[in-house]
Amino acid sequence: MKWEDSKKGFETFLRLEKSLSQNSIAAYINDINKLMAFLDENFKKLTPEKVRIVHLRGFIEYINDRGVSPRTQARTISGIKSFFKYLLMEGKINSDPTSLLESPKIGRKLPDVLTMEEIDLIIDGVDLAKPEGQRNKAMLETLYSCGLRVSELVNLKVTNLFFDQGFIKVEGKSEKERLVPVSSKAIEEITRYLQGYRRSLKIGADSENVLFLNRRGKKLSRVMIFTIIKNLAEKVGLNKKISPHTFRHSFATHLISGGADLRAVQEMLGHESILTTEIYTHLDRDYLKNTITHFHPRA
User: Which residue among 99, 104, 214, 269 is the one 20 to 30 A from 135 at the CA level?
Assistant: First the structure.
């Protein structure tokens, strides 16, 4: 059994049966490529059915020695386990060599969160004198108002805006759709962008239904959104590590701290499991603890 044939079958399985996004599939295949490179260098001509636990443990020691973080190690091991489970399910191997492979213990990392004042500081830092200024302001308001992932923001469609009902339709992971309430402030800024900057663009034939566009009338890249936010944070002097996801974390945390129902927040974020959403209850407790520490007279 050849590695390339096994990889192709695994990729098809992830796309058709698991309905994973292209980014997720690429991450899985990258994990397999790392393992292949290690095995090729240290155990020549070792085909997938000949891989054993000793080889896999050697690979884990190898990436650990290279300084790979426990979190990244755990994700890589998860990808490799999925690959060999697929081979077992397809009858291409007789036993799963990853069954005894343990992942490193990792703590649950609480995400960075902005205060409402910091959110306003960043959004107010947008230079509206620049042609793309209104677009950037509308994007940031949408990120915070709706708690979108950056991939959901760049793929947001004009035909998925239902402002009369106060909702937008979001295409999330694995092409799953959900309706998310949108604030009046975000509606106002998006409307200004639609009537101004976007209308002045020469829009590409493949981007006519894409909401947020670059100056060439094409869909914005994820990297561009990161750059816009990073530059704004530096401009206003905010000394925090900020990304588009920070706005999503802030959205969820502010809802939880305001008393929102956890199930409702789960639905708005598009989390499959409520356990993923529960991290924001921990984050809120941490915020309360820090507040007491700083302001209580007995602290």
Answer: 269
**Given the residues 85, 192, 245, 287, the one annotated as active site:** 245
Do 126 and 133 meet the contact criterion of CB atoms below 8 Å apart? yes
Copy the structure tokens of residue 281.
Answer: 């209850």
- Please say if 135 is a catalytic residue: no
Per-residue pLDDT reduced to its tens digit, 132-186: 999 999 999 999 988 898 989 999 999 999 999 999 998 877 677 888 889 999 9
Q: At what angle do helices 70-89 and 53-65 cross, to 10 degrees?
A: 160
Alpha-helical runs (H) found in 215-261: 222-235, 244-257
Tokens for 250, please give them: 């802030």
Is 248 considered catalytic here?
A: yes
Distance CA 213, CA 227 (A): 15
- Confirm whether 287 is a catalytic residue: no
Both tokens assigned to 117: 């004042």
Looking at 149, 219, 249, 254, which residue is catalytic? 149
| The token pair that represents 178 in the structure block | 């959900």
User: Has 271 been annotated as catalytic?
Assistant: yes
Stretch among 58-67, 111-120, 258-267 having the lowest mean pLDDT: 258-267
- Which one from 7, 15, 169, 271 is the annotated catalytic residue? 271
- 280 catalytically annotated: yes
Domains, the chain, in order of start with CATH, read 3-89 (1.10.150), 116-295 (1.10.443.10)
225-228 contacts at long range (C-beta below 8 A, 24 or more positions apart): 225/139, 225/150, 225/153, 225/154, 226/150, 228/136, 228/139
Amino acid symbol at 209: N
